Amino acid sequence: MNIQQQLRAFARYEISYDELHLPQSGDYEPYRITLEDLKQVLKKVDEEEITEAVFVDDWLSPILLEEIVDIPEDVEEDVELLYDDDDVIRYVLGSLEDSIDVLWPDPESMDLPVDVSHLLEAVSDYERNQSLPISEWDFPEDIKTDFLVYAEELEDQGEELPEEKKQLFYRYMDDLLEKNSLIALRIYGYLHYGGSSLYPCDWEITRDSLEKVFNLTHDPQIANTLGYIYYYGRCNNLVPEYEKAFQYYTFGYVHKLFESSYKLADMYKDGKGTFKDRVTYISIMENLYPHSESHFCYGENNNLADIALRMGDIYENDYGNPAQAYGYYLIAEYALKKREDENRYGDDQVRKAIREGLQRTKEAVDHEEMKTIQISTMDFIYNWLKEPYVCEMKIEKAGRNKYRMSIRRRGGEGGSVLLVYPECDYVALLEEGSIEVESRRDLSGQYTFDALDFDFDAEREAATIHLSYEGNNILRIPEFGTYRLK
User: In angstroms, rounded to a whole number, what is the distance separating the alpha carbons of residues 173 and 58?
Assistant: First the structure.
């Protein structure tokens, strides 16, 4: 056999990878696998009851990892539906890769025959569907489920299914609900949550569907949603059912969900569904805020606006520090703007509360309109060090006795840093920050450090700040610097 004949025979699993005789140079065209080839592979695996161990070595691993047979791109990605032969090939290879871990196979399953019955069914369905309108297509359960997930994702993006696909969606949904599919039940519940292009708003359907899912899965996110429904009395003529909401929010809080946590704090603050205890409210929020800010700095817009709003309330009304409260309200405003394109339910009320908080506390801060601001170098650098991280600093000469210090976390680890200067109404999320300092000593160079300390001279009423790495002092820097607002 010539090279192409060998590759075709291998693609059809008529010979194994070890039986190939290919040139060492690899200077040949790969063979493009066809659906007919793949059908022969599945038929052989099914009829001969080939084990996972043999199948991985003979065929699956070389097909996925070697570049001797051309396969469609994006095998790892889920397919919406099977429209053409390449979709079927992606689906079959992706399913095999998922069910048999090629790189780290499960020793207990390697001696078992490979089950390809559902893949044969999918191929058969695909071929039968070609003569039918999309609304009448049929597929195995896993593809139907993937289609429901795809429709939900489309809805989240503000897009609608075409009418023909909507009919398919309803048929698949009815079929999977009959089979008590938890995924279908969850999607069915959420698509009725406030309404969608596929279903009208029906809070009772949402509640009943998600209650069923929660009872079987104890999913904290489902608990959070149910807490919301009961808190606002969505199924009780808008009369809150606080005791039920308290149970679900407590469950979400235990599982560290941000929304459940601040809603539980609200219930303690107001005595809804539990006894009134503002100390508990404050405790929950103060423990929650640093985690929320950290996640936000990693790019997860995870309710920081709602949490910072409550921290502003605490500093304004419990600690009597309206200036600090103003800073939190600024953070809340900044975080809310970051999630504007999500169109979250209730954000209009959050925006209104933030604006009112800023208005109430604005006079407590001495506002300055300036392009630069004098700050503590220790405070500035600590923003990058906390948690802790290893940081890198580059210092360059910027004029006579002036130096520009640029700092970032090593290797980009640790996300960004949230800087807040209330007196300038300034909030920024930065991966790298720079300040200018004055020094008669030459500070130029590149430095790595993991700790910061200082010595205070009472006579001079000044501090000497030290950067160190693994316990060794590496640099002494000035106490104050100039930060340029961007």
Answer: 39
Identify the sign of the CA torsion 373, 374, 377, 379: negative
DSSP E strand boundaries for 204-294: none
Give the range with max mean pLDDT: 110-119, 122-131, 362-371, 461-470: 122-131
Answering whether pTM is above 0.90, one says no
Instruction: Tell me which residue has tokens 């039918």.
Output: 132
Could you count the other beta carbons within 10 Å of the beta carbon of residue 12? 20
Q: Is 269 exposed, middle or buried (0-12, 13-18, 19+ CB in 10 A)?
A: buried
CA 217 to chain CA mean position, Å:
21
- Between strands 402-409 and 432-438, the pairing is antiparallel
- Condensed to tens digits (0 to 9), the pLDDT of residues 374-411 reads 999 999 999 998 878 899 999 999 999 999 999 999 98
Quote the CA–CA distance of 252 and 17 in Å, as a whole number: 51
Helix (H) or strand (E) holding 483: strand 480-484
Rounded to whole angstroms, the Cα distance separating 342 from 333 reads 15
How far apart are the C-alpha atoms of 122 and 128, rounded to whole Å? 10
Nearest alpha-carbon partner for 230 in 221, 220, 240, 216: 240
Q: Return the structure tokens found at 392.
A: 């890198």
Closest CA to 304 of 269, 333, 325, 343: 333
Prior bond of 478 cis (ω within 30°): no
Query: For residues 59 and 65, what is the distance between their CA atoms, to the nearest angstrom?
Result: 10
**Closest among 405, 407, 383, 428 to 481, alpha carbons compared:** 405
Bridge partners (DSSP) of residue 197 are none
Q: How many CB atoms lie within 10 A of CB 56?
A: 21
Question: Which of 1-10, 98-107, 191-200, 312-321 has the weakest average pLDDT?
Answer: 98-107
Q: Please, are residues 281 and 265 in contact by the beta-carbon 8 Å criterion?
A: yes
User: Which tens digit of pLDDT belongs to each residue from 163-213?
Assistant: 999 999 999 999 999 999 999 999 999 999 999 999 999 999 999 999 999
CA angle 217–221–224, rounded 5-degree value: 115
Q: Which helix (H) or strand (E) holds 402?
A: strand 402-409
- 403 and 389 in contact (C-beta within 8 Å)? no
Express the helix, strand and coil content of the chain in percent, nearest 5 each: 50, 15, 30
